[in-house]
Amino acid sequence: MDGRMDTPTDADVLTLAQWVSPAYPVGSFAYSHGLEWLIDSGAVREAEELRLWLLAVLEHGSGRADAIFLAAAFRAEGADALTRVDEAARAFAPSRERLMETDLQGAAFCRITASVHGFDLPPLAYPVAVGRAARLAGLPLGTTARMFLQAVMSNLVTAAMRLMPLGQSDGQALIRELTPVCARCAEVGLSGDLGALSSTAFAADLASMRHETQYSRIFRT
Questions:
Q1: What's the CA gap between 216 and 221, in Å, rounded?
Q2: Using one digit for the tens of pLDDT, what is the confidence trace for 163-221?
Q3: Whole-number Å distance between alpha carbons of 50 and 67
Q4: SS3 197
Q5: Which residues of 134-170 are buried (b: 16+ CB within 10 A; e: fewer)?
Q6: What domains can you pick out in the chain, each with its CATH number?
Q7: Which one, of 179, 207, 202, 201, lies nearest residue 219 by Cα?
Q8: pLDDT 10s digits, 115-156
Q9: Which of 106, 146, 148, 172 is most exposed, with minimal Cβ within 10 Å?
């Protein structure tokens, strides 16, 4: 297998930091993963409710699933295997908006990463794109998965800070608190076993569906 399972070098970490940075032009700032509807409806009103929602998403919803898709793409041998992983990732999206979220971010990631690194990266779902790029770059899988999930979680906290009374200090403290959860979820998904896929974060899935018809909104999802 190309790429290492772990033991990142400084260059590895800096490359991954660039890929998951808010400055990397994938448009992650435009998506709230259904959180905007939850806040608008009053289901998430304070930091503790946000923490519980994020825990559910990471441990029982798209966080866990994305770690599996990322690892499966990293391990995929050949174009056909990669296509099957990508199709599974798209099929697993529970709503139109969540499919758009992974599709558009993934396509943007592939465009910029192919341009910068010279990789052959067709448009892929977001976690699939990151997993495949990490394989091509010879980056360690474990570190890639952990940093990807931490970045996704951080983006959702940042979205919440724009939507609810959540100060920057409290938001950063929440990111710090949930970082070990991202590491655990990444570890669970390292096998890349698509047969282990599951999701029981039903409220988050329903929120993404409700957001599709929300009257006034800032985020695309």
A1: 12
A2: 999 999 999 999 999 999 999 999 999 988 999 999 899 999 999 999 999 888 899 89
A3: 21
A4: coil
A5: bbbbebbbbbbbbbbbbbbbbbbbbbbbebbebeeeb
A6: 10-16+29-211 (1.10.4190.10)
A7: 207
A8: 999 999 999 999 999 999 999 999 999 999 999 999 999 999
A9: 172
